[in-house]
Design brief:
Elements lengths: L1 E5 L4 H12 L4 E6 L2 H9 L3 E4 L7 H8 L4 E4 L8 H21 L4 E5 L7 H4 L5 H15 L4 E7 L1 E3 L6 E2 L2 H6 L6 E3 H13 L1 H4 L2 E5 L4 E2 H5 L3
Parallel strand pairs: 1-2, 1-4, 2-3, 4-5, 5-6, 6-10, 7-9
Antiparallel strand pairs: 8-11
Helix pairs in contact: 1-8, 3-4, 4-6
Bound molecules: NADP nicotinamide-adenine-dinucleotide phosphate.
Length: 221
């Protein structure tokens, strides 16, 4: 199963591409911004195509991902500059969704962020505009007709994955807590979501590290 990964040179993206490459089921197509990033990934055994999402048309993005069976979005502008929040986090994501539809790919896994549906949690923070963009992109994906899974991780960290996630009812109960998760756990859960569309399709799933083994978490989402 061929999986196009937008944001493949990023921290979650690299971990995800390695996990997909090492699986027996998946073959990643890394979509990265530059030729240098593509070469580095190719040297590690991952197919890669260079494309600047913000500067590309939907047709150009479609041409890159045509023939894939699923798309993962784990890209972001990574900052608080308004123009790039518009061109990348909002319009870039929407262009990827439109390209997925044009390429007749059904499956789309989005990495969003925890609490994007809850304005009270972010309206007065420096990340307000990022959250507005992510919330809007999530809404568009949810009504796109694609077989979506929206993953909403807490703050990302780059230590080794724990393999354990916070149960959804615990997340609900502890609304005031600060949630975090290792990037490796996000990448591994994306692989699980791709492996089990019957459990994850058409779902929006908050992710934080906790006590529940990931496979058990999968059965209660
Ligand atoms: N940081 C957090 O605490 C947090 C919390 C919740 C959710 N998230 C979300 O989790 C996801 C993964 O995060 P991460 O830490 O892995 O992100 P990251 O390391 O910043 O990776 C993002 C990737 O997107 C790429 N990108 C940006 N603009 C692009 C463009 N125009 N064309 C092509 N590629 C472009 C970047 O390419 P370059 O390397 O060339 O810039 C980078 O490789 C993101 O969607 C992020 O919003 C993050």
């Amino acid at each position: 199963m061929k999986v196009a990964v937008f944001g493949a040179a990023g921290r979650v993206g690299k971990l995800l591409c390695s996990a997909l490459r090492d699986s027996e089921v998946f073959e990643p197509l890394a979509v990265v911004r530059s030729g240098e990033q593509a070469s580095a990934l190719q040297e590690s055994g991952v197919n890669a195509s260079a494309l600047d999402i913000e500067k590309s048309t939907v047709e150009e993005i479609t041409a890159i991902i045509e023939g894939c069976d699923a798309v993962v979005w784990t890209a972001c502008s990574g900052g608080i500059a308004m123009d790039r929040i518009f061109t990348m986090d909002l319009d870039g994501t929407i262009k990827a969704i439109e390209a997925t539809q044009k390429a007749k790919i059904q499956r789309f896994v989005m990495v969003s962020a925890i609490n994007v549906d809850n304005r009270e949690r972010w309206w007065h923070t420096a990340l307000k505009n990022n959250f507005i963009a992510k919330r809007t992109a999530d809404r568009i994906l949810q009504t796109s007709g694609l077989q979506y899974t929206i993953l909403r991780p807490g703050s990302l960290h780059s230590e080794a994955g724990t393999g354990k996630l916070c149960a959804l009812d615990s997340l609900e109960q502890k609304k005031s807590c600060h949630y975090s998760i290792e990037r490796e756990d996000v990448a591994n859960f994306i692989v699980l979501a791709l492996t089990h569309p019957e459990k994850t399709a058409f779902k929006t799933i908050p992710l934080a590290n906790g006590e529940l083994p990931m496979r058990d978490f999968l059965y209660v989402v």
